[in-house]
Design a protein that fits this description.
The protein is mostly helical. The protein is about 55% helix and about 0% strand. It has a domain of about 80 residues. This is Integrase. GO terms for molecular function: DNA binding. It comes from Actinopolyspora biskrensis.
Length: about 120
């Protein structure tokens, strides 16, 4: 997972002086934090407090993907981040979020064709 700098700073106190193999988030008595227990004890209570109703942890994955795309990540990076087997799967789920860049590509093609080092036929 990509880790933005603002999160690195937030998490620094949790990792300083710990083994690189240590769990970042643990169950209340230590050990592996199980999704079902975390959801029941923490996540669902937070959703009740701030909403939206019916929000579930998997939607955080969609939020991460959407944020990455909005930040300019290409489909292969989003595929890798989410662990999708193929870029096609990523595009099937998130293709509508990728910006329409046809005009941008047309402008780049025009710039390349008009570059000074591109030979042009002389008109007669």
């Amino acid at each position: 997972m990509p880790l933005p700098r603002f999160l690195v700073e937030e998490l620094a106190s949790r990792v300083n002086g710990r083994s690189s193999e240590a769990l970042l988030f643990t169950a209340p008595q230590g050990g592996v934090l199980r999704v079902r227990n975390f959801r029941r004890a923490v996540f669902d209570a937070a959703v009740r407090d701030v909403g939206p109703e019916g929000f579930h942890p998997h939607e955080l994955r969609h939020t991460a993907a959407s944020s990455a795309i909005a930040s300019g990540a290409d489909v292969k990076l989003v595929q890798q981040m989410l662990g999708h087997e193929t870029a096609t799967m990523t595009l099937d789920l998130y293709g509508h979020l990728f910006p329409d860049r046809l005009n941008e590509i047309a402008d780049r093609m025009d710039e390349a064709a008009c570059a000074p080092n591109v030979p042009h036929e002389e008109s007669s």
